[in-house]
Each structure stands twice: as structure tokens, then as C-alpha cells.
Write a structure and sequence with these properties.
This protein has about 150 residues and is mainly α. Among the domains are: about 5-60; about 65-115, no CATH class. About 55% of the residues lie in helices and about 0% in strands. It contains 7 helices and no strands. It is a single-pass membrane protein.
């Protein structure tokens, strides 16, 4: 329960308790606190037993620690019935983010560069993904769309 309290913090708590309650009342306060903690533990254990008995025999191995999301996810990742390790190993987040960054900045990524070098037409403003924002709406041709600024919407 108090695994993260070091010796210096413990001494500080004892000194503050002696100053606040006094040396003659301190044993009574400690007894009251330990009695309260014991009652809370008994109450929580009886509540857990009531819940287990209400759930039935199918949930006899049910642990309340499994309700913690971190514990649940860790347990599910260790149990590889869903094939999550294969999915995790097949997904390269750095590569995906580099491609998205290149696409946003208007640069060609490695995949599109290899397609362009294999003979696909890659010249012109339509394939580079850039829009000429200097044209006025009156200067647009019949089949041209007005410029679209994704950042402005």
C-alpha cells in the first residue's frame, strides 16, 4: 500500500503527526486509523465476495484487477489468440508517418517516387498535388475547379 514512500517521507509524516496530535494522543489516533483501514478492507472484500457469488460459477476466476485497462490490455496482448503480434510487426509507424508528412509537404515519398520512375506520368501540377492559387476565378478554364485551401476550411 505504501510502497512508494521512502524513509525520509516516513520520518516527515511521523514528525508532523507528533506536532499535530501530540505525543499523548498519537497512539489513540494510530489505533483509530488502523481500525478504519481494517474496516474498509473487510467491507471491500465482502463486496467482492458478494459480486463473485452473484456472477455465478462461470466467473469464479474473475479478478477485479482485470478491470484496470492497463492490466486488461497487457493480458490480452500476452494472449495472442487474435494475432495481434503479426499485425503489430507488419505495421511500420515511422514509414507511415514519413509518407504522410511527405504528402502534406508536397514531396514525393519513396513509394510514389518508385511509381514515377517506373514510367507513370509525374509532370504537371495535378500530379504534384499543388494548386495554382494565383489564378483569379475569371481566368479559370471551363474544366478547371477554383483553388481549394485545405488549411482555410
Amino acid at each position: 500500500m505504501f510502497n512508494d514512500i521512502g524513509p525520509l517521507e516516513l520520518v516527515t509524516i511521523v514528525v508532523i503527526a507528533v506536532l499535530v496530535f501530540g505525543p499523548d494522543k498519537l497512539p489513540k489516533v494510530i489505533q483509530d486509523v488502523t481500525r478504519t483501514i481494517r474496516k474498509i478492507r473487510e467491507f471491500s472484500e465482502s463486496a467482492k465476495q458478494d459480486i463473485r457469488s452473484e456472477l455465478g460459477p462461470e466467473f469464479k476466476d474473475f479478478e477485479f484487477e482485470d478491470l484496470n485497462p492497463k492490466t486488461f490490455i497487457r493480458k490480452q496482448l500476452d494472449n495472442d489468440d487474435l494475432g495481434l503480434k503479426e499485425i503489430r510487426n507488419g505495421f511500420d509507424l515511422k514509414k507511415e508517418m514519413a509518407e504522410v508528412t511527405d504528402a502534406v509537404n508536397g514531396r514525393e515519398s519513396e513509394a510514389s517516387a518508385s511509381v514515377a520512375s517506373s514510367g507513370s506520368p509525374s509532370s504537371g501540377s495535378a500530379s504534384s498535388g499543388r494548386v495554382d492559387m494565383t489564378k483569379k476565378p475569371e481566368e479559370l478554364g471551363k474544366d478547371e475547379w477554383p483553388p481549394f485551401d485545405a488549411d482555410a476550411t
